[in-house]
Specification:
The complex is a heterodimer of chains A (90) and B (276). With 90 residues, chain A is mainly α. Chain A has four helices and no strands. The chains are: A mainly alpha (90), B mainly alpha (276).
Chain lengths: 90, 276
Amino acid sequence: MLAIFLGIEVISKVPTMLHTPLMSGTNAIHGIVIVGAILVAGTADDGFTKIVGFVAVVLAAANVVGGFVVTDRMLQMFRRREPRRGPHDE
Amino acid sequence: MGRTTSDALYLVTIVTFILALRFLSSPKHARKGNWIGAAGMTLAIVVTLAHRGLGNYLLIGIAMAIGAAVGAVGARTVKMTAMPQMVALFNGVGGGAAALIALVEFHDFAGGLSTVIATSTVLSALIGSVSFSGSLVAFAKLQELVSGRPIVFRGQQVVNGLIILAAVVLGITIAAGGAEQWMIYGLVAAAFVFGIMFVLPIGGADMPVVISLLNAFTGLAASATGFVLHNNVLIVSGALVGASGTLLTLLMGKAMNRSVTNVLFGAFGQVQAGAA
């Protein structure tokens, strides 16, 4: 419950231009399923669980790394544009 | 590593995630926030790898290397304009991972699960699959592999209704102690199809809102896997993403002057079939 409250509290005042990076950032954070995937793969003892656990770790790792890198690239783009303040900026 | 130590370190991770979201909400510190989150994630992974009684390290190492390589290369090479669909794709694989974890747990402990754990397994499988297939459709639409226009067909509501009914019946059966393996596969399959049916009727312009919603879904799926695996960092981080993601979805809808219900159900009744 506390986590839910915090989530709402933290997000409630966000400028529109940060919506997409924020979505991408939360996307990276739910990559935390990798913890679950590692636990499952690490305790797997038959072929089925090993294969499924392996795939789960691959998917979750892609979520984590891809999520953070994409978010960073989005924000990098912001930073370069910020000082110029051209007519295209919101 | 002992349970107390790992719980304490997991708490640090949770704090970094909260800080990450906080910083991501302000333009000045957003980039720093992202890296704080990444550091917290790294810590959680290291702590998890140090858990007692864990094996198969080679397997895990190879899997992580493959996943990380795919994620990094994909994220670095994608064009700026293709960012939203990339986010959709990464979101989808996260949901897929949650669903797979549920499959393994059900395979190992079917029948011996308490109602709470069985329910969490069902939710993890269900929400994870919907998020996975829904995100893939969102990706395909934005990438223009599938027409970005709303896709509707006659009897869609009936088909959707039947799929939901099947998923709910299977879910309740499992939660009530049903232990046949086909049940969880049936559940995952129904949820997978539902994810596709759910996103297909939505127009390309509304996709960001949908991706944000699916993002919140994956958070909830991660939280559910936390209950299955008795893992606090999963429960809390998942709930954090679920809540902030839901709110963000509403905010995005508002910023685009579209109510979320309108986005989700607009095309269902063909109310605005020609509007897009």
